[in-house]
């Protein structure tokens, strides 16, 4: 049996070419996957931190409004206004990480904060209209606007974490 190198040369060249191509492409793809994985994990953590901070800020403002409603002063309301402005600044800066639905709800809650704040401020600066003060107080007690944004934030977090309510 005679070995014909003319027939095996194309096979060897093809195998060598495929091996080189595989090694180059695999290295490039692996490197790209690793870079994207690192970048994605950083963005993912950033989003979770933003969600947590929004929940914290929402709860803090809500708690302060509750407290001020009963034992507040004009000075405390002015301090609270800074917190509300900080809240607005925070979600405005972090818009790229937030869904359109969440942004819409954050703007709604901001207007709720503003309405309640304005009515409390009028009350504490003796521009008193008790009926408006009590309407604002009742809105605060009903908790609807606050609960809505809290639920949207929690829902977004669960969606990003891939935590489903339904387990199959």
Brief overview:
By secondary structure, this protein is mainly alpha-helical. Helices cover 85% and strands 0% of the residues.
Assembly type:
single chain
Overall morphology: rod-shaped
Low-confidence stretches: none
Q: Roughly what percent helix?
A: over 70%
Q: Can you count the beta strands?
A: 0
Distance N terminus to C terminus?
64 Å
Give me the secondary-structure category: mainly alpha
Describe this structure in words.
By secondary structure, this protein is mainly alpha-helical. The chain is built from five helices and no strands. It has helices spanning 5-71, 74-93, 100-124, 130-142, 144-161. The protein starts with a helix and ends in a 7-residue tail after the last helix. The mean pLDDT is 82.
Strand-helix topology:
Elements: H1 5-71, H2 74-93, H3 100-124, H4 130-142, H5 144-161
Helix pairs in contact: 1-2, 1-3, 1-5, 2-3, 3-4, 3-5
Features:
168 residues; 5 helices; single chain; mainly alpha
